[in-house]
Amino acid sequence: MEGLKLQNFQGGKPFMLLPASSVLCRSSFRTRRECSLTISVGCREFVGFTIRKEREMQMTTKASVQPVTKEVVDDKSKDLTTSGDSIRRRFLEFYASRGHKILPSASLVPDDPTVLLTIAGMLQFKPVFLGKVPRQVARATTAQRCIRTNDVENVGRTARHHTFFEMLGNFSFGDYFKKEAIRWAWELTTIEFGLPADRLWVSVYEDDDEAFAIWHHQVGVPVERIQRMGEDDNFWSSGPTGPCGPCSEIYYDFHPERGCTDTKNIDTGLGLERMARILQKVPNNYETDLIYPIIEKASKLANVSYFLANDQTKTQLKIIGDHLRAIVYLISDGVVPSNIGRGYVVRRLIRRAVRTGRLLGIKGDGRGNPEGAFLPEIAEKVIELSSQIHSDVKSRESRIIEELKREELRFVQTLERGEKLLEQMLADVVLKARENRILPCLAGRDAFLLYDTYGFPVEITMEVAEERGVKIDMNGFEVEMEHQKRQSQAAHNTVKLSVENDEEITDIISDTEFLGYETLAARAVVEGLLVNGKSVLQVSEGSDVEVLLNRTPFYAESGGQIGDNGLICTESGKKQKSVVEIKDVQKSPGNIFVHKGTIKEGVIEVGTEVNAAVDAKLRQRAKVHHTATHLLQAALKKVIGKETSQAGSLVAFDRLRFDFNFHRPLMEKELMEIEGLINGWIGDATLLQTKVMPLTEAKEAGAIAMFGEKYGEQVRVVEVPGVSMELCGGTHVSSTSEIRGFRIITEQGIASGIRRIEAVAGDAFIEYVNARDNHMRHLCSTLKVKAEEVTTRVETLLDELRVVRNEVSAAHAKAAVYKASMIASNAFPVGSSKKIRVLVECMDDTDADSLKSAAEYLIAALQDPAAVILGSSPGEGKVSLLAAFTPGVVDLGLQAGKFIGPIAKLCGGGGGGRPNFAQAGGRKPENLSNALAKAREDLVSIISEKTR
């Protein structure tokens, strides 16, 4: 049973949802409706609890109920307080006492590639509901951290909308159904939380007579308080296929004296914040003890009183209180601000909070430092409140605070410029709209300029524009955004396991047994073959194929480690021998290994017994690099701080790549210290220890979990005693001595707050060192010096080259000045007084620096007022242009930078500069003469007009 899921209820009012029951259907949800229910509460403004059952049709055997832990049974004293932490604990313990396993909240970064962020409590169980992975428990209960930003504009404006919230849910995987779900939901609502029964209403799906009977005959709800509703209100589905079923809801009536209304609303599962609102008897979720302490901190920094503030100020304070919760938990779960994907979500929220704080009047850090940041101050309160939600947040405090500080200060640097530009844009749009008697609308390209150059999330631009009564051309913005995506988006490879009739291959093929920890070769049976995603029975020589085996020694790509290479062969005998060269192995949803390769010889058929053999040398390279990655993380924590954490990795045959959270480039001495530590551990020849243990036990022992990975109840722990302990399913060396050596190749930034190290180890290290040694030998031979003298010799050569270049440059400048002296007499007077001297000339192949020297000479020689335009073609496909105006010309309103830009465009280039001096370039020398003619014509026309 699962109860924390997005629901679309029309004809209802604001409510929260509890668990709902529904049947898991593999065909259309419209063909099977007979099993689900949801519980909600109310009729006017209310909170609803939804119960939904999602049962796999094949599950016919009920699992035994999980035994209740002794601690729960022995604890007879109920905590009847109404704090948010207490409500969460009471909910979980309520269901734990009824045989449910309390499971931790999943990360806000989901394992599901189809979802950007965790938006519902059932998301971590989606593979179970879809039958892709076996259930680990029959019953579960969770308090899931969730993020939703689709209605961020409502945050602070309504009593209940949030970007971050906790969903409390209970789940049954083929175990209990409607009867128990309904009874427990009513007990939770009326007994555990003490809501008065006369304030509760119930809805059921229109033809769900079974649920109606349970509510009325077994629970005792009066018929007049049970409402039958249609598919739009009381039938839940995850899409055209997948889990689905009728829902039943309990509604809590906040205002029974008002009577019913017809307002339509969309709502969520049993939000902790909403239950806290009811039990704490406050008018909105923001004034509960889950959020108000954050608002109070923001109020102090803004020097305002929340309860004495006007509605606009209260809304702004609520926005900060809400957004800071989302921001802190997103950064804690490894999401780094950026302009794409999840990074854009957190960046958007940070910038929205910063702008809201400025509107509240918070300057700097709010404590007198105008150069400081205020979000870290408020984030400290969020972190303080996090202990019962996610214990790891406190340990990541320094990284969260530093990331917030950097992002806020970076945004503030561009915010003022962007705000001024936006104000000017909006003023121009409004003025133009008045002149043309049309509705004001900001062009999409302007909104994109603000987003791309000044870091303004388009939502903020929309909010500011809305305040001025201006709409935005979002279609134009999306066109610009899509163009940028096409330019920057990297290819994303996914494993598609489906056949033509859309039947899931996972329904046909059983999970693959992995043997690769113990052996590199094994006998196996071909259970499936795919060509271009289509299931086939046999494949012949020369074809690319995906082979599915019942068991395999091949490691499938995961945890950053790439898949094994090797061969799949049939033995020669009566049948022709076949050989498949495997170049990649991927893992499908569930645990099916997909061996991707090419048939080099013979024909391979489904049902054939084969020999699967991994390339031992390449596997060893992967093992070396994977263990070296663990040592690298340990060394980084030792050298730059324990708060740094992994943000991604690649374990390949030729190198390793490790991404980590850090705010600055590593210094050379730090890199040397890291290399020294790792090579020292390699020299210690420490034996690795690998154990399988419960996840909780592993974390208590100090094992590090890799960001973005999803772990089961039993985990594999790889330990380098005294150095490193990580949860890891990858392959590793037996002793650190097998790594042989380690060398960092590069260290660079790849995103805000994210650094990347690329390194080599083992055979790749030897190859790298040998290649560098060969380069050094060649260099020594060329320079005719010893290796230790190379640096000195190169520095000497560079000094000599610098001197020669300066001499050549000086000679070119002298030549250019000489040419300038020869053409100075070509200047001609312009203007009504004929006092302004203008010179527009081509100086052949003069380079840009020499062109500047020539212009300086000419301006001095012609004296004020004078205007000089020079052009040249210093090389093939190159154009240099220069404009120099004396003060007398600039005073007329001419600016060199603005003048030379359009001229440069005629030569396929651009440029600009100061009002008195500007340079530009181009790529079309063949257009230079026409460009200079245009410059002469425009200059004469403008000066004549200005001096008339």
Biggest β-sheet description: 7 strands, mixed
Terminal residue distance: 86 Å
Mean pLDDT: 82
Q: How many DSSP E strands?
A: 39
Q: Total helix count? A: 25
Low-confidence stretches: 1-48, 53-79, 261-268, 487-503
Strand order in the sheet with the most strands:
9-8-12-4-3-11-10
Q: Radius of gyration in whole Å, from Cα? A: 35 Å
Strand content: 15-25%
**SS class:** alpha+beta
Percent in helix: 25-40%
Question: What is the topology?
Answer:
Layout: E1 7-9, E2 16-17, E3 21-28, E4 46-56, H1 70-74, H2 84-96, E5 101-102, H3 126-129, E6 139-147, E7 164-172, H4 178-192, E8 200-205, H5 209-219, E9 226-229, H6 231-234, E10 235-237, E11 241-246, E12 248-253, E13 265-269, H7 272-280, H8 292-302, H9 311-332, H10 341-359, H11 375-384, H12 392-395, H13 397-436, E14 441-442, H14 444-454, H15 458-467, E15 471-472, H16 474-488, E16 513-514, E17 521-531, E18 534-536, E19 538-540, E20 544-549, E21 551-552, E22 566-569, E23 579-587, E24 593-601, E25 603-605, E26 609-614, H17 616-640, E27 646-651, E28 656-661, H18 668-683, E29 689-694, H19 695-700, E30 714-720, E31 724-727, E32 742-751, E33 754-761, H20 763-783, H21 790-823, E34 828-830, E35 836-842, H22 848-862, E36 866-872, E37 879-885, H23 887-890, H24 896-905, E38 910-913, E39 917-922, H25 928-946
Parallel strand pairs: 2-13, 3-4, 5-6, 8-9, 14-15, 16-21, 35-36
Antiparallel strand pairs: 1-13, 3-11, 4-12, 6-7, 8-12, 10-11, 17-18, 17-20, 17-26, 19-25, 20-24, 22-23, 22-26, 23-24, 27-28, 28-33, 29-30, 30-31, 32-33, 34-35, 36-37, 37-39, 38-39
Helix pairs in contact: 4-5, 8-9, 8-11, 9-10, 10-13, 11-13, 14-16, 17-18, 21-22, 24-25
